[in-house]
Amino acid sequence: MASSSSIRMIDIAVNFTDSMFRGMYNGKQYHVADIATVLSRAWSAGVDRIIVTGGSLEESKEALAIAETDARLFCTVGVHPTRCKEFDDSGDPEKHFEALLSLAKEGVEKGKVVAIGECGLDYDRLHFCPPEVQKKYFQKQFELAYATKLPMFLHMRAAAEDFCNILEQNKHRFCSGVAHSFTGSAQDRDRLLSFSNLYIGVNGCSLKTTENLDVVKGIPLERMMIETDSPYCEIKNTHAGINFVKSSWPSKKKEKYDPDCIVKGRNEPCLVRQVLEVVAGCKGISDVDQLSKTLYHNTCRVFFPQDLDSAADALLAGGQSAS
């Protein structure tokens, strides 16, 4: 479906390094790699920038390589909490850290790396990485943010207290950030909002239940961003937010792959439009265009500040030429 031309969106979280975008599901090939097709659907839907998530050193390298294929793609560099064992497993944690730092600096020079992350704490999946290791290397990644002056792309799952304590201890070491894929309670939300430089990222996983919708309703618009976290976190028909969804795309199962259709069960960036619609619906906002502008502006403030500078300069220049 075509978008209304005035709606512009930035999807702050897409996992293009996931094998589903190469046509692989659980180790089995179902269709061709199709990032180009997925991107063309996203651009047509009104998405005009995407941040590709890095969740390990290797994945961050891959995210940077993907970001270099299109002027509208950007990426993060960092280590996800469930992968933090890779620091110790490398045999030389400091050298591993230095490799991340040099990759981040290289990406900044290329104009592609816009955040440090995905980093944080995930106590739902401790079988991947114990809490002490997660905390140690979450702390460590603030050094990356401090050294590069980049914002942080954060992950908090069932760990609000430790997460916010670490944030508090390091709040002067990062300029700003987003707690993405937020699924916490109203109390968790308010704790995050108490950090003036922090935004909250909302996707399909944030909009599953009526309780989720109530929590999202309480996020001030000027502190919110939207994302898909694709290929995960789609808005399903069973989710409370589905009633507010207005846009749809034809879909087919992966076994019957058709490049003109989205793959059933695989989220993709064009569907960030549905997240925008659910946010509008649950907050009772009828002007979706204006909502998209606010969220776009928030995202630029954190990840693309040079855009706001040039927009402000253009406004000033316009004012001067008119006088």
Automatic annotation (TrEMBL):
Keywords for the protein's UniProt record, in alphabetical order: Hydrolase, Metal-binding, Nuclease
Annotated binding of a divalent metal cation 1, by residue: E118, D229
InterPro entries: DNase_TatD-rel_CS, Metal_Hydrolase, TatD-like, TatD-type_Hydrolase
Xref: SUPFAM superfamilies: Metallo-dependent hydrolases
Provenance organism: Sesamum alatum
Pfam families, per the entry: TatD_DNase
Source organism superkingdom: Eukaryota
Full protein name: Deoxyribonuclease TATDN1
One GO cellular component term noted in the UniProt record for this chain: cytosol
GO molecular function: 3'-5'-DNA exonuclease activity; metal ion binding
Residues given in the record as a divalent metal cation 2 binding sites: H155, H180
PROSITE patterns: TATD_2
Similarity field: Belongs to the metallo-dependent hydrolases superfamily. TatD-type hydrolase family.
